[in-house]
């Protein structure tokens, strides 16, 4: 009797332990073992991740990033778009930024396209090339730069202050100014310093007896004139010597640019 029971118990034990066996799949005539994923291994990867909300500064950066990218792309040089510098900038975004820049009087002169005269006067005027006066004005006055002073002179072998302004106006505007500074002041429309524009005239009283000196305003508070001591040069209206002798400024209303930029 005991011998008959043993085979039955053996079958029961084998059937109860089937869960411990690996499931078997059959491909063709071969058996392939499939490993069941473990449910007891700790999820280290998930446990090690720390998720934090972005700060307000990071949110602002993310919000603005396409605009910044567009500006970087647009600033590669006078409208040249280097899209590859930042893939976050869409074509539409770059086009919008370029259009905005064009509407906001984007300076035409840059370091890349400035000529030697413009670079020279950027240094003399202590300003960026984008803030320089017209190329025509600079090239006209530069023909006289460094010419020595000579009373009554009006040539490049020697020129006085009103002879210099007469020569500039004749060449640049095709306009014949009166020969002396006092008359140039008389016919001009009087201006305050904040109203000054390139090409206007600035006047000084060097001896305390009315107008006796004149120069051409360039911008950035700078003017060019024929000084007695150093000839044609650039000075600043705020320099003490010229500030205390400053008399006024004037504009010749009916002058017209004779040379196109």
Briefly characterize the structure:
The chain is an alpha+beta fold and 261 residues long.
Task: Characterize the structure shown.
With 261 residues, the chain is α+β, with helices and mostly antiparallel strands. Helix content is 35%, strand content 17%. It contains 9 helices and 10 strands. Strand 3 (154-155) and strand 4 (158-159) form a beta hairpin. Helix 3 (56-74) crosses helix 4 (91-103). The longest helix has 19 residues, at 56-74. The radius of gyration is 41 Å and the shape is globular.
Helical proportion, percent range? 25-40%
What Rg is obtained from the alpha carbons, in whole angstroms? 41 Å
**What's the rounded overall pLDDT mean?**
74
SS-based structural class?
A: alpha+beta
The N- to C-terminal Cα distance equals: 123 Å
| Unreliable parts | 8-39, 41-52, 57-89, 94-107
Biggest beta sheet summary: 6 strands, antiparallel
How many helices? 9
- Global morphology: globular
Oligomer: single chain
Count of β-strands: 10
Instruction: Estimate what percentage of residues fall within beta strands.
Output: 15-25%
Strand order of the largest sheet: 5-10-6-7-8-9
* H-E string: HEEHHHHHEEHHEEEEEHE
């Amino acid at each position: 009797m005991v011998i008959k029971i043993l085979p039955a118990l053996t079958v029961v034990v084998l059937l109860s332990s089937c869960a411990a066996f690996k499931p078997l799949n059959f491909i063709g005539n071969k058996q392939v073992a499939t490993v069941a994923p473990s449910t007891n291994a700790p999820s280290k990867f998930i446990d090690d991740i720390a998720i934090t909300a972005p700060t307000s500064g990071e949110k602002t950066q993310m919000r603005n990033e396409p605009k910044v990218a567009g500006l970087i792309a647009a600033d590669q040089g006078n409208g040249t778009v280097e899209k590859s510098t930042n893939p976050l900038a869409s074509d539409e975004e770059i086009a919008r930024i370029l259009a905005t820049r064009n509407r906001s009087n984007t300076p035409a002169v840059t370091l890349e396209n400035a000529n030697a005269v413009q670079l020279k006067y950027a240094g003399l005027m202590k300003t960026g090339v984008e803030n320089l006066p017209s190329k025509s004005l600079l090239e006209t006055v530069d023909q006289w730069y460094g010419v020595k002073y000579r009373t009554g002179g009006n040539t490049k072998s020697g020129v006085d202050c009103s002879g210099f302004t007469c020569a500039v106006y004749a060449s640049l505007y095709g306009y014949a100014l009166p020969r002396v500074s006092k008359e140039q002041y008389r016919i001009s429309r009087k201006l305050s310093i904040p109203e000054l524009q390139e090409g206007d005239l600035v006047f000084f009283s060097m001896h305390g007896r009315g107008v006796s000196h004149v120069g051409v305003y360039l911008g950035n508070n700078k003017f060019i004139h024929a000084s007695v001591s150093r000839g044609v040069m650039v000075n600043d209206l705020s320099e003490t010597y010229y500030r205390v002798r400053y008399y006024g400024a004037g504009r010749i209303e009916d002058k017209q640019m004779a040379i196109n930029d």
